[in-house]
Each structure stands twice: as C-alpha cells, then as structure tokens.
C-alpha cells in the first residue's frame, strides 16, 4: 500500500472557519481541550457553543468562559460545524433524535471516532460534510501540547463530501486544534475503527491475560505479592518502556535495557510461533469487528450499561475480573501501603 498522506499547517486555511458557528456536543476530556485550542487559535468565543446537559461538564465549560446551551435542538439549529464528542454508545440516540432533524442541510459533522459512522448508526443529510478529526492523545495532552507549541498525532478523513469542501474544512479544524503542527495523517473511519477495536478486543485482552498467567506462575514459584506487583507494573516500568518505544522505536528501545534483558527479549520473541496469535487476531477482526457482530451485541445491551450495580453488564465483568489472583493480590499490597502511610 502507498504511504498515507500527511497534512501540515501549510495545507490548512484557518480563514475558512471565519464566521462559522461551531458547536461542541459534549465538554469532556476531548471537548474541553479542543474547544480551548480552537479559541486560542483565533476563533471568537461567541462563535463557539457548548451543547451539554446541565451537569459538572457544563459548569466546567462556563467556568472556562464558554457559552453553554442545554437545549440540544437550539444548538443544532445554529451549528455550521458540529463536533460530536460524546461517548460512542450514546451518540446515535442523541444525534439522530435531537440534532439530525434540526441541523442545516450543509452543516459539517466532525467525529473523533469512526465507530458509529463505519457501522452506519448515524443519520446524515446527503448535502452534509462528515469528517473525522481524531487526535490520538488523551484530551489533557491535546491541550498541554498545544499550549507548549507542540503537535500531536491525529487522523483526518472525509467520510461524506456533501458540499465538496469537506477536506478543506477538516484540515482547517485540524490546524485550529493544533493537530497539523506535527502532521495530521490521512485515514478513514474504517481504518480507525478496525485498529481501535482490534486493540481493545484482541491485543490488550491478550496482554491482560499474559500478565495474569505470568503472575500466577510466579506466585506458584514462591514470589511474594509485593515483589510481583512492583516488578510487573506498579513500578511503572512498562509505561516507561512504551514511552521509550515511542521515542526510539519499538525494538530500538531495547537498547536501554541490560544485555541479559535485550538477549532474552529478542531471542524469546523471535522463537515464538506467531501464527496462533495471528489467526486469533484475524478471527476477531473479521468475525467479530468488521462484520458488525460486536456492534450489534453492544447496541442490544446499551440500555443496561446505564444501570447501577450488577444489573450493568460492564460491572459484571469488573466483578469477575476482580476475583482473579492478580487483582486480589494487588488489593492486599495497596491495602498494606495505605496502612503504612497512615
């Protein structure tokens, strides 16, 4: 495949946003960061509207000087550009019922996750632009890096080019939130969804399982809870390794380890048969993610995800995970630390 195109500040024209009424649906981590970055990029405060129910997020927006609208229909009517920054599972109901019927026919809808667009769970007018501007950083970093004059990784795409100006608007918005300073990568809702969900449903579950089983084996071999918890994750060594990987390369970071560690990791990794893992990943990608099976399952349980206690299927999973030896040991260790600090 050809390399992805990367867009920089010079590719984006901020003047395209002049006089546009920009509405943020949601003022969570990403909404708060991106709205402040837009304002600091020269977008007038009265041209930024925060659509949010009356809660702590709305109060936070007001404390930061933004105009807040609790009536979603009113916010939709005035929007030239709508940032859709509420959780994936609640987007369809709120957008399709409150925003879609009231948006301008040529409004631009901005997504930060490809999930609901890829699975066609949102209703758009054919004349509207649907673009993805998806920072690959948590909101606090999107904000802090902007303030430091630094860029951050971001995906950008046009999913529906109703007006013919979708890409130009997407790039202008990317620049306004600080994403083109380091380079915004051309992507798609398909690509973002496939990568995101595969990591969540295959890569990280396997990592959790590997830590869980390694912990169990070492516990059986006589290692203490304290030693295991600190050696495996509480020391923050894994976080430092991934930080080094981002800076020096996934394999290049190994050179910061001891010779014993380097040899052990490389020799062990190259000796492992990756085919079973590859087959597992392909099965999850094609038979659970891209065919819509997971999305269909999630849509069925969405009402239950708002419930309290063990009626909530997510809480049921947490309860089951907390029964594992690794989690129980960590609780004992943290409990001892708390007692020592008192």
TrEMBL record:
Keyword Repeat (UniProt)? no
Can the keyword S-adenosyl-L-methionine be found in this entry's annotation?
Answer: no
Pathway field of the UniProt record reads: Amino-acid biosynthesis; L-isoleucine biosynthesis; L-isoleucine from 2-oxobutanoate: step 2/4; Amino-acid biosynthesis; L-valine biosynthesis; L-valine from pyruvate: step 2/4
Q: Which Pfam families match?
A: KARI_C, KARI_N
Top-level taxon of the source organism: Eukaryota
| GO molecular-function term, one example from the UniProt record | ketol-acid reductoisomerase activity
InterPro entries in alphabetical order: 6-PGluconate_DH-like_C_sf (IPR008927), KARI (IPR013023), KARI_C (IPR000506), KARI_N (IPR013116), NAD(P)-bd_dom_sf (IPR036291)
Give GO BP annotations, semicolon-separated.
Answer: isoleucine biosynthetic process; L-valine biosynthetic process
Where is each KARI N-terminal Rossmann domain found? Answer: 4-187
Keywords attached to this entry? Amino-acid biosynthesis, Branched-chain amino acid biosynthesis, Oxidoreductase
The record ties this protein, via SUPFAM superfamilies, to: 6-phosphogluconate dehydrogenase C-terminal domain-like (SSF48179), NAD(P)-binding Rossmann-fold domains (SSF51735)
- The residue range of the signal peptide is none
Q: Which family does it belong to?
A: Belongs to the ketol-acid reductoisomerase family.
Q: What is this protein called?
A: Acetohydroxy-acid reductoisomerase
- Where is the organism placed in the taxonomic lineage, from the top? Eukaryota, Fungi, Dikarya, Basidiomycota, Agaricomycotina
């Amino acid at each position: 495949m050809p390399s992805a195109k990367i867009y920089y500040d010079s590719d984006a024209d901020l003047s395209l946003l002049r006089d546009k009424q920009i509405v943020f649906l949601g003022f969570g981590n990403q909404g708060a960061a991106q709205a402040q970055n837009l304002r600091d990029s020269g977008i007038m405060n009265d041209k930024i509207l925060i659509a949010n129910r009356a809660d702590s997020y709305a109060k936070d927006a007001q404390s930061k000087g933004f105009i807040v609208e609790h009536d979603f229909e009113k916010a939709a009517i005035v929007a030239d550009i709508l940032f859709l920054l509420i959780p994936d599972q609640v987007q369809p109901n709120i957008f399709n019922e409150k925003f879609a019927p009231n948006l301008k026919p040529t409004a631009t809808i901005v997504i930060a996750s490809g999930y609901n667009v890829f699975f066609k769970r949102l209703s758009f007018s054919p004349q509207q632009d649907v673009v993805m501007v998806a920072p690959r950083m948590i909101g606090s970093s999107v904000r802090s890096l902007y303030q430091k004059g630094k860029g951050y990784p971001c995906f950008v795409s046009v999913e529906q080019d109703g007006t013919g100006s979708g890409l130009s608007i997407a790039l202008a918005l990317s620049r306004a939130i600080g994403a083109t300073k380091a380079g915004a990568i051309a992507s798609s809702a398909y690509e973002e969804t496939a990568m995101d969900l595969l990591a969540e449903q295959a890569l990280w579950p396997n990592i959790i399982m590997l830590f869980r089983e390694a912990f169990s084996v070492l516990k059986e071999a006589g290692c203490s809870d304290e030693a295991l918890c600190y050696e495996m994750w509480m020391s923050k060594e894994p976080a430092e390794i991934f930080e080094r990987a981002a800076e020096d390369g996934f394999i290049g970071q190994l050179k910061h380890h001891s010779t014993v560690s380097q040899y052990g990791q490389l020799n062990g990794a190259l000796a492992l048969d990756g085919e079973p893992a590859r087959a597992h990943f392909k099965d999850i990608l094609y038979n659970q993610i891209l065919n819509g099976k997971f999305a269909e399952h999630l849509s069925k349980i969405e009402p239950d995800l708002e419930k309290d206690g063990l009626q909530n299927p997510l809480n049921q999973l947490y309860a089951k995970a907390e029964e594992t030896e690794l989690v129980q040991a960590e609780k004992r260790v943290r409990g001892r630390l708390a007692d020592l600090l008192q």
